[in-house]
Amino acid sequence: xxxxxxxxxxxxxxxxxxxxxxxxxFYLNMHYSVHVDVQWLTHEAQLFFSGGHYTTHFVDPNxxxxxxxxxxxxxxxxxxxxxxxxxLTSYYVYFIISLSLWRCHFLLKKNxxxxxxxxxxxxxxxxxxxxxxxxxxxxxxxxxxxxPYLLSxxxxxxxxxxxxxxxxxxxxxxxxxxxxxxxxxxxxxxxFRKNDLRKKYLALFxxxxxxxxxxxxxxxxxxxHHTLPLFRHYYLYQTGNIPFFYFLGEPMTAAPMLGxxxxxxxxxxxxxxxxxxxxxxxxxxxxxxxLPEQYRLYHTVPLLSYWLLLxxxxxxxxxxxxxxxxKYLIGNLILINSLLVISTTIDDxxxxxxxxxxxxxxMAHPIDxxxxxxxxxMISGSSPxxxxxxxxxxxxxxxxxxxxxxxxxxxxxxxxxxQVKHSLIHYAIDDIKxxxxxxxxxxxxxxxxxxxxxxxxxxPTFKKLWNRYHLTSKTPSFNVYTLSHEGGKHEN
Length: 492
Prior knowledge:
- This protein is mainly alpha-helical.
- The protein has helices spanning 2-13, 15-29, 36-49, 65-79, 85-109, 114-128, 138-155, 164-176, 183-192, 195-219, 221-234, 244-249, 251-270, 273-290, 301-319, 327-363, 404-409, 415-435, 446-457, 460-466, and strands at 373-377, 393-394, 439-443, 469-474, 478-483.
- The protein is built from 20 helices and five strands.
- Strands 2-1-3-5-4 form a five-stranded mixed β-sheet, with helices on one face.
- Helix 3 packs across helix 4 and helix 8 (164-176) crosses helix 10 (195-219).
- The longest helix has 37 residues, at 327-363.
């Protein structure tokens, strides 16, 4: 039996298998559209490194670290202008994945356990294939940059491998892409690291956090004083969220929650360190995903990644524990959990395909090539697909008017609301005056379009500027109002 399994083990440990999985993931990714958030953040990075500032040139809830991560895409485009930014984004993201996989393979090669044998191909699937059309999103970058750190913790917590400080440094970058993810390593260090090493790595993570906060406070004060309050009040619990109990009943939420419950029960019988580490990660990412009640597919990527790894490790522990009590019960629980994680992954793939078709439908109706400067006034976040993605200048400082649903639904405005409303209208006026857009784009939704226009037209200065534009074309997704020096009659 040992000899018959030997070739399989050699294949599982072979770097060639990792390369095949990696290339397959890259092939799939080239058939997806680059996520609109990635496109917009790449555009913001270009503005930021050209001397732009938060609020003045762009308004985004993401702190500045992600702009540093995406800026190399713009540098590559400067060196290779004939290659589209979207294509370069895929190359760049998969280059980062290849480095992470190479480091993971190096760590696994030093470990001769059965667990290490199947973890390599599984990690390649998690990093290269699982994100689907969300590849390059902040959540996916977090998983990619932190995977060597997580792997080191899984296979060897007592004696960290050579270069582990570098793994920790890169994982800090990944976790701080969204600062709430720092709860993951802090919890893992507190619960699963020995005292002497615990203090060392906790201090390292906290030092990176303090340096980052200091950078934001001193070098991007507009984010701290203007963007962050705007985000907290008008986005975090206002835009795109759905009723909590309905949110919990959605398959994208209910399946991982049920899976987490099953994994807790199974881990109670095993009580193995590796499973408990991943259970901790799944718990924290589940809380981070659930609390804002926002139905975003890419928000589930960290949760699904930890869940998939945990499920695989539980299967491995079940198969290598011959004297396990209540084996029939645990086997059935593992089977149900495995079916849940597989069906959730398939459902995510279906949603990714649908999203890609929606993106392509939107881009299938190009705007007149003569119109090179566009100002989108859209609530949806799809405006980069019709502006920066096709080489046009996006005159707006917003990727979407994500704060507008709050103002359109509020019955009464507080003093702060009135001040923010005036600021938003002023930003739009300033964008028009500074950029002189050839056209203004609104959504082809009579209710949203008219509400958006009415909101801005409440200011006489904006209304005067708006009257210079008239409706020239419609697509299934948006309306195009073109600049006319003679003015024109508006249609909605």
